[in-house]
Design brief:
Radius of gyration of chain A: 18 Å
Shape of chain B: flat
Helix content of chain B: over 70%
Oligomer: heterodimer
Number of strands of chain B: 0
Shape of chain A: globular
Number of strands of chain A: 0
Order of helices and strands of chain A: HHHHHHHH
Distance between the termini of chain A: 40 Å
Amino acid sequence: MIYLQLLWVFVKIGVLGFGGGYAMLSLIQHEVVDHYAWMSTTDFADMVAISQMTPGPISINLATYVGYTTAGFGGSLLASFALCLPSIIMVYFILKLFMSKKNNALMANTLKGLKPAIAGLIFAAGLSMMNTQNFVDFGRGQYNISVIICVLAFVASYFFKANPILLIVISGVIGFFAY
Amino acid sequence: MKKAFELFFSFFKIGAFTLGGGYAMLSMVEKAVVDQKKWIPNDEFWDMIAVVQSLPGVFAVNTALYVGHRVAGTKGAFAAMLGAIIPSITIILLLATVFREYRDQPVVERIFKGIRPCVVALILAPSLRMIKSAKVTWKTAIIPIATVFLIWWCKISPAYVILAAIAGSLIYALIIRRHETARRNTRDNGPSTGSGTSSHVSESRVPRQKEKEAKP
């Protein structure tokens, strides 16, 4: 049963995963945390951190991780394969259709129109992870170190395009000394 | 068969050593496939990437599949894809088992208490960057706001929201294409009465070739 659910979830994400790794991350977050409740938001945040710090596509890393924690070794292989399955099918059936310049322009325009919605989707995923499980000291005492980390990391990432891995490492060091 | 092996190892190397996802990978793929092995000519490679960028799914996997298929058919496609994902799967499986052992250690817990708020920031930042690169105006700001409201507040599945957005964008893109064709016809047949306004409208909506930062 869990295998079927994993297959369904990740095939769906492979089909609807427009707009790159973070868009897929928000789809995975919804399915895994909100819908099936396979894990808590903290587990998911830890997974994202680890997936971000290791080489390879973040969505494959997440699929492997989610599959492993929900259904062991077999689950990890199944989830990653399910995520790739729509792509495999597309190579054969859609390649010819979209290799024509006319259709590719249509596809590119569709994606362009999709972008604002995808941005909203990713933002919603970030918002739903803003809770007291991830911000442990929020509302307790006067030092909200977690909020400070979040704001600083946001500024560094958004305005200065700081390397995410570096930010994760620095936040980990701050956490080690602060908590 | 030899080519399939070469594809596997090329993508394996790329998968094992690129941090930071799809776009970091792209220049390494270009170096391996276009410069070193000379499997695909440069302009054909970038045409192919333009198509792959607008497809759903994992960008690295899509790139591997298309390059592999182009170079060595079905065998090549699978070899390249497996090469791209096997390093990821192996590394994550190793880390997941280690993390499961040590996650309850107080030291690890402290470190991750610091990391979690950072992860939230790392998700919020690209979404706002995307809004900027999509050139959202005050008028079109309703789209991301409505998306956030539907998903975060109404708890509607993002799958439905994406499907609705695809339908909307496709209709919009089809309208652009019709305008384009109308404009081209006008240009070819010389200015005819009545088509002046429609050509003016399409002028402001000329579809540009997609920017590179479409997928962060």
